[in-house]
Structures are given as C-alpha cells and as structure tokens.
Write a structure and sequence with these properties.
alpha/beta; about 650 residues; 15 helices; 5-stranded antiparallel sheet; about 25% helix; 8-stranded parallel beta barrel; about 25% strand
C-alpha cells in the first residue's frame, strides 16, 4: 500500500506527546489513516461530504507586504491568525471532512530562466498548512487564488501567454512538492477566472459576449493545468482529482456547459461557486430579503432557485461524466440565524440528493452588514461564533454527522497587568487599566506618538485579541490609510512590538514620508480587541526583568536537550526530572499565542520523539512545563522555551 504522507511539526507534536502518554482524551491528528488510491473521480467525490474554506489567509495579497517577509506576515496581512493545527482540529471535530485551502502565489514567484519558480519558503509554509488537514485524514483542495495574471482587465493573446507561463511554473512546483500525496489531496486549477474590465463580457456573468473567445481562453488554461500535473510523473499525480472551473466559477448553466474537459484528462471534477439565492445570502440592496423561505424583491422564490440549480447541476455532471464540487457556498450573517439554519438544511438537502459536496466559505469576518459576514470559526480561540454554531450544527444534521461544536481547543491565560513587564524607561502614550474594547476593524487614535516615530524607538502595544492587532498611520490630508502589521513573532503574552521598520514599510508603500503622517490609530482586525496600553520603547534600553530567570529546576524542567534525526526528519526532546512533578505538558507558540498541546505526560516520562517526515527548515518555539503541587509554572517554562529547526 502506498504511504500516505502525513504531517509536520506543530500538529505532529501533539500526536507524539499523546503517543508517549497514552492520553486518548486530547484531540489529535489521525496519523494512521489508510492511503487512498485507485479511486475514480466519482468515488472520491462521494466520500467528500461537506467541507470548510480557510478563507482570507494564504490567499491574502495586495497589502504591500515588503519583499522577503516571513510567510506568516503574508498569511496575516488581512488580520487573520496564522493557520495552525488547532484550527484544523476544531474543523474536524465539527464534522467537516474536507478543507479547501485558497492560496495566492503571484507575490511569491521568482524568475527561473524563461519561466517561474515558487519561493521555497512559501511553498514549505503552504505544505505545512496542507499537512494540518492531511494529518487528520481529511480531503484537501489546494488551488491558485486571486492571481493578477489570471483575473485581468481583458483577455487577449498576450495575457494568455503570461498566464500560461506562470501557471506552468506554479503547478509544476506544486505537483512536484506533493508528488507522493495520495487521493485525499485534490488540485483546483484556478479560482474564479474572469475579465474585470471588458464591456462585452460581464465580470460576474457567464462568459458570453465575445463569440466564445472567453470560454476557449479558460479551457486552454484548464488544459495547461491538467497536462502540467499529469506530466509530473508520479503515479499519485496521474490519478489525482483535478477541479476545472468555468468562467468565474459561475453556477450558471451556460458557463458550466462551456467547460471543455481535455482529452485523456483522467479524474476531473467541475468547480462551481454558488452563493444561492444571492438576494438571501449576500445582497444588501432594496431587493434583498434575508428571510427563508421567501422571495427576493424581484419575486424569485428562494426554494425554487435552489432546487432548479441543483437539478441542472445534476444533469450537467451526468452529461459531462464529471462530478460537480461546489467549492464555495455560504450565507452572510444578517442576524437571521433561524433563517440561515432553514436555508442550510434546504440547500444541503438538495446537494445531497445530487451527490454534490459543498465547501463552506469562511472568511472569519463577523459583525459587518455588507454581505461579507461569512465568519464561522473564530480562528483565534478555535471556537465557533455564536451566530454560526447552530448553522453548522444544522449542516451536519443533513448528513447525519456527529458534531462537537462546544469545546475550545485553545487554552490561553486571561490578561493581567502583573503578567506584563513595563520597563521603567518605557514612555506611556496610552493606558487604560481595565482596557478599551473595540469591535473588528474599528480603531481609535493615540496622541503624543510623533516624537517617537524614529529609529531610536519601537512601539509596544499591550492588548488582548483573538487576531493580530495593527497600528494605522494616516497622513495630514486624510488621503492614505497605512496599515502597519507587526514583525514580532516572539511569543510575549499580551504584548506586540511594532518596529520603526514596520512603520516605514507601511508608509513607504504610500509614496509618502513619516513627516507626512499626522494620526496614529490602534486598530482591531478580524476580531474584537481590548487595548490596555501603547508605549514607546527605547531601542538601546534593556528592561531589567523583575523576576529574573533562575534555573533552579524546582518547578519547571531545565537542561532541555534536543536531538535531531536528519535521515527521518525527527526531533527528540529530553529534560531533567522535576522533583515532585505530577506530570509534564507541552506548549507551542502559534498564531501569536501559546497553545497547550498536552498536559498529561506522566512524571515518569521525560522525553518524546516526533513522527517521521517533518518538513526540513521549519522552526518552532516549544515550552515544556511541569505540574508541581497542583500548579503549573508556565512563566518560567516559557522563559526556558527552546527553538528548534527541523533538519
């Protein structure tokens, strides 16, 4: 049986710890899943059931992140927490067995002779994210998304040449990287290929209007995708399921009818997006009606729209002998939970009748009324939003899936001022003892900052949020809004440092200078944020630790040793025994917070080894704590944390 390649460090560490302790109660990846091979496209699709999208994360782009930044900085540029194993565990426990991972690649392309190559660091980061789901025996759809060489103003022969060249480079690298992954991994050639400025062909239409040129253009790109993957050479890529979209991945019958399946394409599926009915799921104009069942302002019956769509989708997949996968569907939260529950039951009931799996779009956005509130999983706390929990439960009920939506898999401490070391030389710009809470994407101004916006100071924000915070700089004419993301991934609880370089990266992208900036804002991103303080921190000042680290070994493990196995890409952790320890625990710094992986390692066990085949070159920060007399000394455990890099 072919080996199913499974996960890499962060998810694997939890599995390794459990393997060492036998603590079956901790949710971990299923690393013993059987390989999937020899299946037809219809057999694969029949197993997929229902899926979830990691939206607005690896597909984030166009925020002018400085070239050479870390993958995490790219992934969090739209305010999302970085992807991590605990998010995927929550999705798995909710009942989803498929994950779609949208990825934007154009910002990570490097010239390679006459072609293109994907930056290795970015590819490893994508691979790590894919493995979070593969480790959990889930199907994964990996695509190319928001590509500026695919979605262009108008299709022509020159734009086609560039698109084909870059698609070949991207899919060659993807196919090679994942050559040995089994049929749980699915490739989707494009997201929503379309023209954004052609008066003859509507951007969000069905592709008609230019005598078939648009349909032929997309069909040729689909053929390039299929041939590139199939020609990689591995047996797994020859049988991999490949998804082909029509114009803008429309659910329109004409658009799908004009998808041409290449000769000898092998296992393929038709890729469709369907936020149906639109006037219920997303519209905000005077024709919208967010009640279900119901009708739009145009008089269209919602249940009739859904039934008609699935009837012709069923007919089309039979006519083309290729199954349909709905890669995106959702209903924005307009405070209408009961109506969304009724919609979900009806929508997925019709999908189930036709054997069409549906993948829920989740952009982790809540509390907005613009039709884009598709937040289901709070990716910071790894819990389901109140307005989404019952909707997801209803979705699982359609398939008879047992769902766990009530437990949090993230364990984070509550904020206390005593847990933050404020240096005696720190300059206080803002402080609120009880904290000022702002909702997602809201902000407020801070005075007195301008004298410290130079290379001699950093800014330290004391905060609590499920998402990454930002600062925002605004020029005197109020014409530019320059979002400042932090390059600080140190893991300091409740403190995020913004360097002068971080500020200048944002300002430089506007074409202005720091002297042009007049206002500084503290800003939430995709989750509410509580701001406690903002400080200017002198760079040449070393803050004395009020609780200096003393390696006494009385309440936490010391002398942590790390051994590397370069043949199997494994890591072994060994630590000295702690007197009177009841058990040991492992935490990994992930997405801006410390995540408890396990707290059940017996006192008699003082080492563990990760699984094989971790990703070489990836680095992680790991803390090992001990429970002594009923108390965990996490503060010293974090101070004694070790950095490891897979070899």
């Amino acid at each position: 049986m072919k080996k199913k390649f499974v996960g890499k460090v962060l998810s694997a560490m939890s599995a390794a710890a459990i393997a060492a302790t036998g603590a079956a109660s901790l949710p971990i990846a299923n690393v013993k899943a059987s390989a999937l091979s020899g299946q037809s496209s219809w057999n694969i699709v029949s197993q997929m059931k229902i899926g979830w999208n990691l939206g607005n994360t690896l597909d984030a782009h166009n925020s002018k992140v400085p070239s050479g930044s870390s993958p995490e900085k790219y992934a969090t540029q739209w305010g999302m927490p970085a992807p991590n194993a605990r998010q995927f565990q929550a999705v798995k426990e909710a009942g989803f067995n498929t994950v779609r991972i949208p990825v934007t690649w154009y910002e990570h392309l490097e010239q390679n002779g006459n072609g293109y190559h994907v930056n290795d660091t970015w590819m490893n980061y994508v691979k790590q994210t894919v493995d979070y789901a593969i480790d959990r025996d889930m199907f994964v759809i990996l695509n190319i998304h928001h590509e500026n060489f695919i979605n262009v103003s108008q299709f022509n022969d020159n734009t086609y040449y560039q698109a084909e060249l870059k698609m070949k480079g991207i899919w060659s690298d993807i196919a090679e990287t994942f050559a040995n992954y089994d049929q749980h991994l699915i490739f989707e050639g494009m997201n929503e290929p379309r023209q954004t400025g052609n008066s003859a062909v509507s951007e969000w239409g069905n592709g008609s209007g230019d005598n078939g040129y648009t349909w032929n253009y997309i069909n040729k790109l689909n053929a390039t995708f299929v041939n590139t993957v199939r020609n990689q050479g591995s047996s797994q890529n020859r049988e991999r399921l490949l998804m082909l979209p029509g114009y803008c991945a429309s659910n329109d019958q004409t658009a799908i009818s004009n998808i041409a399946i290449p000769n000898n394409a092998g296992n393929v599926a038709l890729s469709v997006h369907a936020y149906t009915p639109y006037y219920f799921t997303m519209a905000t104009d005077d024709k919208a009606n967010h009640n279900f069942p119901g009708q739009s302002g145009w008089g269209a019956d919602y249940e009739g729209e859904i039934s008609n769509m699935f009837n012709y989708l069923g007919n089309l997949q039979r006519q083309k002998n290729a199954p349909v996968i709905i890669g995106e569907f959702s209903a924005s939260d307009f405070g209408n939970t009961n109506d969304r529950i009724a919609w979900a039951k009806y929508y997925l009931g019709r999908a189930k009748e036709q054997g069409i799996p549906c993948v829920l779009w989740d952009n982790n956005v809540v509390g907005v009324a613009n039709g884009e509130a598709h937040g289901y999983l709070n990716r910071g706390s790894c819990t389901w939003y109140d307005g989404a929990k019952d909707v997801v439960a209803a979705m699982m009920g359609v398939y008879g899936i047992s769902s766990n939506l009530n437990s949090s898999v993230a364990v984070d401490p509550n904020f206390k001022w005593s847990s933050v070391d404020i240096g005696s030389k720190w300059v206080q710009l803002y402080k609120n003892d009880s904290g000022k809470t702002i909702s997602s994407w809201k902000n407020f101004t801070v005075d007195g900052w301008k004298n410290y916006a130079n290379s001699n100071y950093d800014f330290a924000l004391v905060y609590d949020s499920a998402s990454q915070p930002e600062l925002v700089l605004q020029d005197g004419g109020n014409n530019t809004w320059n979002r400042v993301s932090s390059s600080d991934y140190s893991g300091t609880p409740f403190v995020k440092t913004f360097t002068y370089d971080d500020l200048m990266a944002a300002v430089n992208n506007s074409g202005l200078s720091m002297n042009d900036m007049s206002n500084l804002f503290i800003s939430a991103t995709t989750s509410e944020l509580t701001a406690y303080g903002l400080y200017a921190v002198p760079k040449n000042y070393s803050n004395p630790d009020p609780n200096p680290y003393q390696p006494s070994g009385d309440t936490y493990p010391t002398n942590i040793r790390v051994n590397y196995n370069t043949q199997y890409h494994q890591i072994q952790f060994i630590w000295d025994s702690v007197p009177n320890a009841q058990n040991y625990g492992i935490a990994v710094y992930l997405a801006g917070k410390w995540r408890v992986q396990t707290s059940y390692i017996p006192a008699s066990t003082r080492s563990y080894v990760t699984p094989k085949n971790l990703t070489p070159g990836l680095s992680y920060k790991v803390a090992i704590a001990a429970k002594v007399n009923g108390t965990w000394d996490t503060l010293n455990a974090i101070k004694n944390a070790v950095f490891v890099t897979v070899r």
